From TrEMBL:
Record-linked PANTHER family: LIPOPROTEIN NLPD, PEPTIDASE-RELATED
Protein keywords: Membrane, Transmembrane, Transmembrane helix
Transmembrane segments: 29-51
Limits of the M23ase beta-sheet core domain: 202-297
Protein name: Peptidase M23
Organism: Fulvitalea axinellae
Pfam families assigned to the protein according to its UniProt record, in alphabetical order: Peptidase_M23 (PF01551)
Signal peptide: none
Keyword Phosphoprotein: no
Molecular-function GO term, any one: metalloendopeptidase activity
Amino acid sequence: MARIKYYYDTETCKYERVKQTKWDVTFNVLGYVVVTLLFSFGLLALFGDLFESPKFARLAKENRELKENIALMNKKMDENEGYLQALAHKDDNVYRKIFEAEPIPETIRKGGVGGVQRFRSLLEADLEQEEMIINTFERIQALRRKMFIQTKSYDEIMDLAKKKEQMWASIPAIQPVNNTEMKRLSSGYGIRMHPIMKRRIMHHGLDYSAKRGTPIYATGDGVVKKVKYYPGGYGRVVEIDHGFGFETRYAHMQMYIVKRGQKVKRGECIGYVGNTGRSTAPHLHYEVRKNGKTVDPIHYIFQGISDEEYAELVRLASQDNQSLS
C-alpha cells in the first residue's frame, strides 16, 4: 500500500494532502529502477568474482585443456625432431657414405618455413594465445619440411641401392686368368724395369705369365669399348667399360673373341693369352682404370680367393722386378 504524504498549510492552519504530479511519479520510478539496477550489477560483479558461471567455467576448462594439448603436442614434436635428427645423421654418415653419395647440405635441411605469415594473418591480432599457436604452427611446418626432405633422400638411397648390386657385379673383382696356384703373377703395378728400354718406368698394370692360348676372362660386367691391334705397343687389346668409372684393359692377346659394343659378364672368356705387340714372353698385361686414371688392380681382386691367397698376390705384386712388356 502506497504511503500518503501530507504537509502543513500555514494559511489554512490544516494538514493538506501532498498531490504528486505525473513527472514526480516518473522520476520516483526511474530512481527506484536505477538504484535497483546498480544494486543488481554490484551483486552480479560480486557473484562473478566469488563464483564462476557454468559458461565461464566451461570456457576456462577448454582453455586449460587447449594449453595442455599444445604443450603435449610440442613435447611430441621434440621427440619426433630427435628421431628425425638421428635418421638424418645415419643418412649422411652411414647410408650415403656406403653409396658414395654427397650428404644433404645443412642449408637445405634447415631451410625456411613458408606459410607462417599467411597463417598469422588468419588469426585475430588480440588473440591471447597467438604466439603459442604461431610457434606451434612454425614447428609443425618445419617438421613437415624436414620429413619431406628425408623422404626424398631415402628415395635417392633406394635408387642407389638398386644400382649397388649392378655396381658390385661391374667392379673388376676377379683375376683375369686362372691362377689357382698363385704363381702366374710375374710383375706388379708401379715403377719397374722395362725389358726392352732397359730403364725404370711406370708399369700401369699387372703381368700374368701364361702359355699361349690360356683363356682370359672379363673381371666384371660391362660393355666392350675397344677391340684393336697395336703392333708396336699393346698388341691385340680389348678394353671393357664397366660403368661407375671403371674400365679394364687386356693386352698382348693372341686373339679376342668379342667385338666392340658387346655386353660381357664377369668370368666370361673374351680371348686368349698371346705374345703380340712389344712383349718379351707370352703373358697378359692387365690394367684397371678408375675415372680415367690407372689404379693398382691388386686392390680390386676380392672374389674367388682366400685371405691367404690375396696376401700372396700382394707379396708377388710388390716385388721390385722386371715387367714383361
